[in-house]
Amino acid sequence: MSDFLIIGGGVIGMMTALQLADAGQQVTLVERGECGKEASWAGGGIVSPLYPWRYDSAVSQLSRWSEGVYPSLALRLLEETGIDPEYRQKGLLYLNVDDADKALTWSRQLGKPLERVGADFVHTKEPSVAMAGDSALWMPTLGSVRNPRLAKALKARLAAMPQVTLREQCEVSGFIHQNGNREGRAEGVVTSQGPLKAGRIVVCGGAWAAQLLAQLGVHLPVRPVKGQMIAYQAPKGLVQRVVLKDGRYIIPRADGLLLVGSTLEEAGFDKTTDEVALASLKKSAEAILPELATCPVAHQWAGLRPGSPQGIPFIGALPGWPNVFVNAGHYRNGLVLAPASTHLLVDHLLGREPLIDPAPYQPTPARLKLI
């Protein structure tokens, strides 16, 4: 029997497993499909909320801590696995920001580099970008990571660790209750590969977490929010850094692939793509980078974000279930917040001093509706 059983093999689940294994714990991670192939794969990989000054301070605290982790995490995984997560720190250009004064006030309060720049500056940094208006914002410290490769590297590292057991294509259908009592403690889970037991259970199921926790009589206010994206295969170097305009962004990869995102759709668990979204994303992309009108769209895909009130994740033990924990509800910022949110939960699981105040994230009865 493992010390910990983690449900969900996305970036949140895999980082949790990595930190527990680093601490000498025996961990079993179960994933209904393939590790890293849901929201962790589908996102863009920007290591910051798109407009961080518009978020609750609870999100900002996690984001600030996580941002500083990615450079060393990427280097670690490259050395351990030979897989490069392609962390790039080339900054972000914000075009058409209608609350720039608020953004600058936020940056000064937090000591975050952010400045107002003009058209000449934007043209020098990104000659191919179509400037909108006479000013923009520049955040030089922002980084991005190639999230499918980050997930691949995390999976490879976990597979090589003797403390970790990975079980893919292993869907959890229910909980095993102590002495058949459906209150107080869960001894394990029922899966498509048979029963699995552990001392403590951590639910990192993203958009699917609420469905699973409903079986414990807990209503987790997390829902799937669909996001469609496209990618152009463009000449290398057409754009070097992340550019954001009117809520849509372009993210460059080292091989010339340019990601464009994303839509926000309330469509349940539907992950189909459509021509309406394609046209909308192309229009946004070409308004930022007109040369894309001559480049082919290489890919279109969709993923499901775990939407939650104010985008604040639920991190901690479930009321009435002292050995069942949750880390879900990161909305658009799962990869952004993953290092900090997983570290915060592992601090709690192992009795360590928390890196930040855990209170805003705990799944208390005030934040949950019990069925």
SSE series: EHEHHHEHEHEHEEEEHEEEEEHEEEHE
Q: Pick out the low-confidence regions.
A: none
How far do the termini sit from each other? 30 Å
Give the tally of β-strands. Answer: 18
Structural class: alpha/beta
EC number: 1.4.3.19
Protein name: Glycine oxidase ThiO
Keywords: Oxidoreductase, Thiamine biosynthesis
Enzyme class: oxidoreductase
Brief summary:
This protein is an alpha/beta fold. Helices cover 28% and strands 27% of the residues.
3D structure, described in words:
Residues 3-347 form the FAD dependent oxidoreductase domain. This is Glycine oxidase ThiO. One of its GO terms (molecular function) is glycine oxidase activity. With 371 residues, this protein is an alpha/beta fold. Helices cover 28% and strands 27% of the residues. It contains 10 helices and 18 strands. It has helices spanning 11-22, 39-42, 57-67, 70-81, 100-110, 119-125, 147-159, 209-213, 275-288, 334-349, and strands spanning 2-7, 27-30, 92-95, 115-118, 135-139, 164-167, 172-177, 186-191, 196-203, 218-219, 223-233, 242-245, 248-252, 257-261, 297-307, 314-318, 321-328, 369-370. Strands 1, 2, 6, 7, 8, 9, 16 and 17 form an 8-stranded mixed sheet that branches. The chain has an 8-stranded mixed sheet with strand order 4-5-3-12-13-14-11-15. Strands 10-18 form a two-stranded antiparallel ribbon. A hairpin with a 4-residue loop joins strand 13 and strand 14. Helix 1 (11-22) runs parallel beside helix 7 and helix 3 crosses helix 10 (334-349). The longest helix has 16 residues, at 334-349.
